[in-house]
Design goal:
It is globular and about 65 Å long. The two termini are 38 Å apart. It has 2 domains: 119 residues, no CATH class; 162 residues, Trna Endonuclease, Chain: A, domain 1. The chain is built from 8 helices and 15 strands. The strands form 3 sheets. The chain has an 8-stranded antiparallel beta sheet. Strands 11-12-13-14-15 form a 5-stranded mixed beta sheet, with helices on both faces. Helices cover 28% and strands 32% of the residues.
Amino acid sequence: MNRLNGAKCLVSSKDGTYTGLYYCVISKEESQGIENLMSNSLGNVKKVTITVKDIGKSLADCKLTILNRVSEKCYAIKDYVVKLAGIDNEDSYFYDDEKNIISKIKEITSEEYQQLIVSGTSSIVWDKIKTSINGEVISKDKAFEYLCVDVINQIKSVKEGSFHPRGGNDGGRDYIWKWSAIDNPKIDYLDLPNDLWIMQCKYSEKTTQKLKQTEVWDEIVKVIQYNPNHYILFTNRNVTRAFKDWWDGVARLDGRISKFIPFSLHIVGREDIERFLNSYLDIKNKYFD
């Protein structure tokens, strides 16, 4: 059962509408109440608690697909229907018998794992990003920049920040800011420290469009003149293995300080952005129907 502890959890409502991508924790029930003692005395299996983190509502009548990658193998529980569920702060939990859960865990291929992840985020149609935000009519590129700033503001409280005006050479920067020391523990998968940051955004209507090393490197070099502590790239484009290997090579060394450039490099790809949006539906609905 540990194969699915800390797994991804795709949640759909009763009518099949996709709700979001979350994380779950599976643990054996530790309660020693009379009900548990009677069950154990009759030889029944122990109950387990399945908790979906930070969903903010009850899982009752929801359908779940729980999946995880452990070493080189992938596992999943597909189309699990929750009947009764409780709420604990932002988490929702439910119970089941250990044997029943174990019987539903199936090994799947790496390709099937990726297909399930993609299907879980397919409700975000990037070429349909809204171009009218708060009464302002803007381009899709600019809307993506605004979206990324909303992500930044949700991660930490921005102390001061401003867009670099468009219309000419932006010097490799779309947004420059300083963060306060306030972290959002719900987004700990983006471990981003304080200091002076410069953000660059690379948007495409077609997410299959590849991110090119040359265009990104040129922007990174331009940023040196502003002496930031960190450079972060947000993109919804296809980050290929070749690009990721190149990026890791440029960014590698102690504390992500590169031997080629005097600041740290960070990248937030489409999967992380979509995971964020599917957890913060108010921001998602601001930019997508």
